[in-house]
Amino acid sequence: xxxxxxxxxxxxxxxxxxxxxxxxxxxxxxxxxxxxxxxxxxxxxxxxxxxxxxxxxxxxxxxxxxxxxxxxxxxxxxxxxxxxxxxxxxxxxxxxxxxxxxxxxxxxxxxxxxxxxxxxxxxxxxxxxxxxxxxxxxxxxxxxxxxxxxxxxxxxxxxxxxxxxxxxxxxx
Length: 172
Fold this sequence. Notes:
The chain has five helices and eight strands; from the N terminus they run H-E-E-E-E-H-E-H-H-H-E-E-E. It is α+β, with helices and mostly antiparallel strands. The protein folds into two domains: 1-46, no CATH class; 53-169, 2-Layer Sandwich (D-amino Acid Aminotransferase, Chain A, domain 1). Helix 3 (96-104) crosses helix 5.
C-alpha cells in the first residue's frame, strides 16, 4: 500500500536526496536511509528525551530570499510567538558565538537565563542547531526553506531537540 502518489513520492525522494548529499558538509550525519514504496526516509539520530518539566519552545529556520540570499531566523515559539513577536535574523555564515549574541538580543532573553526559579536554558545547544541549519543552507543551494518548529530547549547541559522539521527544495 502506497502512502503517496507518484509525483509526491518523487518530490520527497528528490528533497531527501538533496539533504542527504549536503548533510556531510553541514556537519549532519545520516545514520540510516530507507527506500520503501518510492519514498525516502532519512534518520539522522534517535534521542531518548530527558524527563524534564521545564522547556522553552523556539522556531528556527532559514529561507532563501530572492534579494538577500539565505537568511537564518530564530525566535520564541509556542504561545510566545504571538505575545513577543520576537525574531532575530542572521546571515548564513553566522558562527555559534554570533548566534549566541543574537539570542541574547531577543526581547524575551530573560526567559533563557532562568526566571522564577526555572533553570537557565541550554542556549549553546540551541545555537548549535541553528548553526547546522545555516550550514545546510550553505551546503545545499537547492534548499529554499527550512523550518524547525518547535525546537524544545531543555535546561543548561541537557540539550535541545527539534520535534518537527520541514525542508523545501527548488523544483527541477
